[in-house]
Prior knowledge:
Largest sheet: 5 strands, antiparallel
Helix content: 40-55%
Oligomer: single chain
Amino acid sequence: MRALIKSLVMLVCIVLPVTGFAADGMITLKSNHSVSATADRLETLLKKKGMTVFTRVSHSAGAAGVGLQLRPTELVIFGNPKVGTPLMQCVQSVAIDLPQKALIWEDESGQVWLGYNDPAYLQQRHDIEGCDAALEKVSGALENFAIAATE
């Protein structure tokens, strides 16, 4: 029993620095770059893979525009109708969570994070059935983009 507990503690110690804590249904990764550089890297990767980058929102610039301060925080909104449409054909309500979004922010200690919606969370949220192949494709692509943008 002690060996099992020790193994679980070690696993948590290994995984937490990579994924961090986030809101339910959100996958997060530490970035080795600034918020701006991480967003630039992500945008470049997405475009190289034929994804459409719809917009990039600087929440910190928006805050500054009304005289408020916010640590660097950017949102990249992107997608591909070839992937998103089959999900919407399964359950149309998933459209509220599409196109995909990646949030890049700097926390209070200066660490930069990249987070995105976990497709498994979307599957549960919208009770998606029969779209496992599309969800797996989305999951793999998001993970690959996030890793490449943050390393």
